[in-house]
Predict the structure of Hydroxymethylbilane synthase.
Amino acid sequence: MTALRLGTRGSALALAQARAVAALIDGETELVTITTAGDVDRARGDKSRWVGALEAALLAGEIDVAVHSAKDMPSELAPGTAIVATPRRADPFDVVVGDLREGARVGTSALRRRSQLLAWRPDLDVVEIRGNVDTRLAKREAGEVDALVLAAAGLQRLGRSVGSKLVDGVFVPAAGQGVIAVQAREGTKLPSVDHPATHAALDAERHVVRELEASCHTPIGVLALEGRMRAFVGMPDGSSYIVEEGADAPELTRRLRDAGAVELLRAVSA
């Protein structure tokens, strides 16, 4: 029997995620490591740079499925492909690693995290910091920043200590955070990998992002959890923001529109 080829980025976290998917598959698997444009140039934030090379390999038949962090996937996938499976979601929340004293220097590369931190604590000095999880942790140890904001799921999957969770008020994680997304050609079935509740939550979160025409360049967070949905939309400096809740994706989208989220997102993109 031919081994199922799983395409993945080569970072420690990406490989850990791919191995987690492989462990759920009945039969032989092979991990195929692919370098993406995002790996080559981390200074640019377009999410397609993280998944484009994997999608190209999928369409070319070089791999059978592509394994992604769902939060890194753009709202529109390559034609003919779909998210065909999502294992059970890990912790979706962000955590603080380090000291948030008054005026603390906090490192993050995410516009959403910057917006939420400044909306919560305008005294913080939020600075851009890039690199994989271990690189960022090393930069904090070296004193480049006082604290980091990272995804709890990534730390857990790498066996690293998790800091203080950011779960209340303005803190809403990115759509798909904590979810591993398995992309393949439409019609592919991987029932042993798929967790239906996680898949439904991811679909709902991505629906809201897509309906608002948001992108990786806009500060937006969406979370479907325990039968409710929450969303955050804000300005990068935290000076203006919206937090809304809804029973499902259509209701949440309507509430966000009514609260002025579309206009706020346009202001961010202007």
User: Anything to note?
Assistant: The two ends are 53 Å apart (CA to CA). The longest strand covers residues 228-234. Residues 38-46 have pLDDT under 50 and may be disordered. Residues 210-269 form a domain with the Double Stranded RNA Binding Domain fold (CATH 3.30.160.40).
